[in-house]
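Why this split exists: single-chain examples teach little about how molecules sit against one another. For that reason, every record in the complexes split bundles all components of an assembly together and asks for one structure covering all of them. Below is a record exactly as it appears in the raw files.
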Amino acid sequence: DAKTTQPPSMDCAEGRAANLPCNHSTISGNEYVYWYRQIHSQGPQYIIHGLKNNETNEMASLIITEDRKSSTLILPHATLRDTAVYYCIVRARTNAGKSTFGDGTTLTVKP
Amino acid sequence: DTGVSQDPRHKITKRGQNVTFRCDPISEHNRLYWYRQTLGQGPEFLTYFQNEAQLEKSRLLSDRFSAERPKGSFSTLEIQRTEQGDSAMYLCASSLLHVAGDPDTQYFGPGTRLTVL
């Protein structure tokens, strides 16, 4: 699986959009980009995933660059409850098996 | 959909004791994964099952660790002769592998926090 690079920490004002970047420059054509988040002392929570098109669900939007070497997770109106560690990972399209997590980005939403 | 459940949520044990954790996956999910997470780090893969078959084991899974999924439903992770270095959060995840299409999305349980004294 390709390796991902994320900034260790970010701050965001409550009510504003949080934009979390992820670099995955060695991603291959059959690998999806996945985002999870982990609130303190809980298990990781699935947020969204995508292959090459932008995706949106009730939690967030995922923007993947045309060359697929980077992506951005957007939380449109961050709340204090969005404070968490956000993980970007890549997984093969078929028979992916395990996920390889990095250290993620700690997002702190401030009032 | 009741989600992935894990039991116990917390376990404190003395060094040298054996411990066993249980994971109940989302109903009808055919894949089940175990991860370990230490403070400040992302989850690290330990092993996974497809139905009852154990398909991959990490080098982190020493001979003191054993995992089973006897009937392709719940799974147990046992640690024998625990060491202080085994203190961590043990996470279980499950997924439904489709014949074709999207990769199987993993859904995680709340974890079991192990403290070895």
